[in-house]
Description:
Blueprint: H1 2-17, H2 24-30, H3 34-42, H4 52-66, H5 71-84, H6 104-129, H7 135-142, H8 150-174, H9 179-203, H10 209-241, H11 256-260, H12 276-284, H13 302-340, H14 343-380, H15 397-403, H16 406-422, H17 427-450, H18 456-462, H19 464-474, H20 478-508
Amino acid sequence: MSDRAEMRGPGARRRRTTIPANDSGKVKQTNGGKCHDAAAATGSPPRCPGRGRTDERRVDTDVGVSGRGPRKERSAVEDINERLSCHVLQESLLSSASGYSNYRGILNWCVVMLVLSNARLFLENIIKYGILVDPIQVVSLFLKDPYSWPAPCLIIVSNLFILAALYTERRLAVGTISETSGLILHLFNLSSLLILPSFIVLTVSSVTPVGGVISLGIYTVLFLKLYSYQDTNRWCREIRQAKAKRLTRSYSCPSVAQSNGSVAHAHVSYPGNLTHRDMYYFVFAPTLCYQLNFPRSPRIRKRFLMRRLFEMLFFMQLLVGLIQQWMVPSIRNSMKPLQEMDFSRMVERLLKLAVPNHLIWLIFFYWFFHSSMNFVAELLQFGDREFYKDWWNSETVTYFWANWNIPVHKWCLRHFYKPMLKKGINKFLAQTAVFLVSAFFHEYLVSVPLKMFRLWAFMGMMAQVPLAWFVSRFLNGNYGNAAVWLSLILGQPVAVLMYVHDYYVTHYGGTT
């Protein structure tokens, strides 16, 4: 039968290809003419007048000869299948293979649940303790003795260190003193910046912990600023001594016309920057790294300034209220489990304290790094507003520490980390040294105002080194981000409980 089909095959093909010209319309109808299109539109088999039997015989012959169906039959079958089918090859939305990423509704649900759960906790706190917010108590924390005011006086005295750094640089610029003498004077000035305020806080009884934290915080910022000030001016002297025609971009930013299109602020070159105006602009500017020409905004936006001021006042009141109403009762209730070393109760109190502590930390971050620093930057027309990056997306611990506090990160990178690398120290040791310096200042800002030394903050910062190694090596993507959030949510309340417990034991004989 197959031989017979092969013999008939060429004849069949020859009959289809040698149709006269006047029958070309019939060929078009056979391959999808008007009657076929109409039939396809109605979903019924094609019926052309006077051609039914001939077409049926041709279809049978073609199928039997070539083993293939005609185009009109395939198109009709496919059209019917498309109309009757309701399933396609696809993955579920929550499967990773689906590629779906729009979870905005779930995020909104999480926000709503978070608000409702915290509202319940806040209502429970009000019912249990009543209204504990007292603005007068806050004022008394700053000023125990209204006639001495040690913390504000200590802040005013800091101007002596600022002027000492300025006049030392002036003497170095004109060559009155040698580089070695200038270095000794700067080291003495910077050391006094850390020793003098800590000595006063530890010896003067009227300095409260809150006043001590604010005073030492200002002196610490001033220490970092003056270190950057002397470092940058030393680079400028080295370049001048090398007879460079222009300051490189590493040590001085471009002219104002290049950076923001405005010529309102004149370009300054060394040693023309050694003025009181330039020094105090840097002292109040929201940055820790000095340069001769800062990027400047063309004007002060009054609406933007008022919005930031309103945020500062509102969030400050909110922070104080949350601490008084939520944090203080939770800390007091945590003292007894800590003294009795009741592990299960300690964990329960830790988790209970973690929520308000983390919420207060987030509000403080927004208040300080966004509202306050943008307010000062707008007031001074300071152009660089990158005070933080997307630390909330951190998948490693090192990414978090490099992006949540950009001014400190820039200072560490410019004045500490890169100089160590230039001296041949490997990256791991340089990173460890950065965490060591950070741990020292964390402990300095906590232990000295509390007038006790327990090294909890120091050990917490140094614990970031192995944690960073573990997260970067074993956790990736969302797991790494979850680990970073977990360390922030649980790590801080642990340190708070340790310090508060030791403070009560040290100063009140273990009474709560």
